[in-house]
Design goal:
Blueprint: E1 4-6, H1 10-20, H2 26-44, E2 50-56, E3 61-67, E4 72-78, H3 85-91, E5 96-97, E6 99-104, E7 111-117, E8 126-130, E9 133-134, H4 138-149, E10 155-162, H5 164-173, E11 178-184, E12 187-188, E13 194-195, H6 201-206
Parallel strand pairs: 1-11, 4-5, 4-6, 4-8, 8-10, 9-10, 10-11
Antiparallel strand pairs: 2-3, 6-7, 12-13
Helix pairs in contact: 1-2, 2-3
The structure holds uracil.
Uracil (URA) is lined by residues 80, 133, 135, 192-194, 197, 200-202.
Length: 209
């Protein structure tokens, strides 16, 4: 069973409250999502392996640590995942960014892929799939399926808010994938929206409704 990590850092939880609030305007919503993405980038990378190197300080030679192992790739799911990319790049500026375009069929809630563009060395990177909302899990599962088809093996999923149904579905389909979220909500409604959630993440980030 894949590991579920709820990032319960007080700063993340505080900001998430204002992200949820329907009175938060587009500008503030976007800024808050960006800030939470930065904080979650800090949490999701806390177990990256380190190696020791020598560095000359102005005083002496120091044995000091740098991140070793795989470089990171970010894979936002279009379009709402884009809202978290810049925030993550603030802490991981050398990450490459791939994109997967998936939309939800509103009747079946199935995910349909319409675009994929990955860094050429994606399979050698640790990939973080980014989508603010983990609702039914169909979209995330399909995105991870596509990455695995391209021989990517080290994949994590990062979302702001998840429904228990979505977490379960991803855990069943991809038991090897770590899932990092800021909150686990109550349920999905009949339209596939997370309750209480924050509404439509894409519309709130881009101000389209
Ligand atoms: N996508 C959203 O943007 N919000 C939800 O609540 C569920 C899926």
């Amino acid at each position: 069973m894949s590991k579920l990590v709820v990032c319960d850092h007080p700063l993340i939880q505080h900001k998430l409250t204002f992200i949820r609030d329907k009175h938060t305007n587009t500008k503030d919503f976007r800024e808050l999502v960006d800030e939470v993405a930065t904080l979650m980038a800090y949490e999701i990378t806390r177990d990256l392996p380190l190696e020791e190197i020598e560095v000359e300080t102005p005083v002496a030679t120091a044995t000091s640590k740098v991140i070793s192992g795989r470089m990171i790739g970010l894979v936002p799911i279009l379009r709402a995942g884009l809202g978290m990319v810049e925030g993550m790049l603030k802490l991981i500026p050398s990450a490459k960014v791939g994109h997967i375009g998936l939309f939800r069929n509103p009747d079946t809630l199935d995910a349909v892929e319409y675009y994929i563009n990955l860094p050429t060395d994606a399979k050698d990177r640790m990939l973080i799939v980014i989508d603010p909302m983990l609702a039914t899990g169909n979209t995330a599962i399909k995105a991870i399926d596509s990455l695995k088809k391209q021989s990517c093996t080290q994949i994590r999923l990062m979302c702001l808010i998840a429904a228990p149904e979505g977490v379960r579905a991803v855990q069943e389909a991809h038991p090897d994938i770590e899932i990092h979220i800021a909150a686990l909500d109550e349920k999905l409604d009949e339209h596939g929206y997370i309750v209480p959630g924050l509404g439509d993440a894409g519309d709130r980030i881009f101000g389209t409704k």
